[in-house]
Amino acid sequence: MSVRDSLSVVQLTDLHLLADPEQDFKGQKPWHNLVAVLEQSLKAHPVDLFLLTGDLSQDESVESYQQLYQLMQETGVPWHWIPGNHDSVDLMQALHPIDFSVVSGEWQWLLLNSQSGQPHGELDESQRQQLLQALEQPQALYQAIAIHHQPLLVGPGRQGENHNPLMDNSEAIAGIDSIPLRDQGWLWQTLTGFPAVKTVICGHVHQEQHLVKDQLSLLTTPATSIQFASDINEFQIADLAPGYRWLNLMPDGHVESRVYRLEN
Ligand SMILES: [Fe+2]
């Protein structure tokens, strides 16, 4: 915890890096976007912690992870990463740990690995047990959760709840909502049973949203690479600048947060 008493966190997500930093990905240069977003965030805030919430590499190349590792180390700021559906856990762990719990002052971050081997996400039994234990025996007054896959539907399909999105034929369940966290009902029900949990952040959806369900907020964040249009039915690319999310976790349990996009 810094002398400011609050914890200043920057979330970077869906980097989709490639082995060649000059290579294009759907009209963007992911490496250059990331460097610019990172520099902007460091100028704008006194950052205590970076959280990288998955889809770090698009091609799962050793080079993409090595370059990312080097870049983050050079910031001198503590940083943690979790895998997305596009990531190699082995390559990540060879460079930098994939931690489950990060404690700073009054706050404990729980970093979930939702990688299932498929495009959608899932928490395996060991993740569920680890989470339950951490919720029942918190190491700080307040907790925040980070996960790659969205633990609530983010598109039109969220109007109709109580269904398994992967089994639903509704046209509303399409695009990114067709590959969410599969066990999102279990996770949300579990988290809302613990009042110390104040917020959840995720990647995967490549756009900004702020949803509230059962008094718990889900914050989604623009990618540092490509953006998806708000009509998520078609994975349509939006002409929006890359961005990041800043969170200020207060010592009284309040959470301030805002998305910033790259300024040119
Ligand atoms: Fe992604």
First and last CA, distance: 32 Å
Q: Could you state the oligomeric state of the chains shown? A: single chain
**CA-based gyration radius:** 17 Å
H-E string = EHEHEHEEHEHEEEEEEE
Q: Just name the CATH architecture.
A: 4-Layer Sandwich
Q: Which percent band covers the strand fraction?
A: 15-25%
Q: What spatial order of strands do you see in the largest sheet?
A: 4-5-6-7-9-8
Overview features:
single chain, 264 residues, Purple Acid Phosphatase, chain A, domain 2, 6-stranded mixed β-sheet, 5-stranded mixed β-sheet, 13 strands, 21% helix, 24% strand, binds fe (ii) ion
Tell me what you see in this structure.
The structure is a single chain. The two termini are 32 Å apart. The radius of gyration is 17 Å and the shape is globular. The strands form three sheets. The chain has a six-stranded mixed beta sheet with strand order 4-5-6-7-9-8, with helices on one face. A five-stranded mixed beta sheet has the order 3-2-1-12-13. A two-stranded antiparallel sheet has the order 10-11. It has one domain (7-261): Metallo-dependent phosphatases (Purple Acid Phosphatase, chain A, domain 2, 4-Layer Sandwich), CATH 3.60.21.10. The chain has helices at residues 30-44, 62-75, 89-95, 125-136, 184-191; strands at 7-12, 49-53, 79-82, 101-104, 107-111, 142-147, 197-202, 209-213, 216-220, 227-228, 237-238, 243-249, 255-261. The relative contact order is 0.18. It is built from five helices and 13 strands. 21% of the residues lie in helices and 24% in strands. The protein binds fe (ii) ion (FE2). Residues 14, 16, 55, 84, 204, 206 line the site of fe (ii) ion.
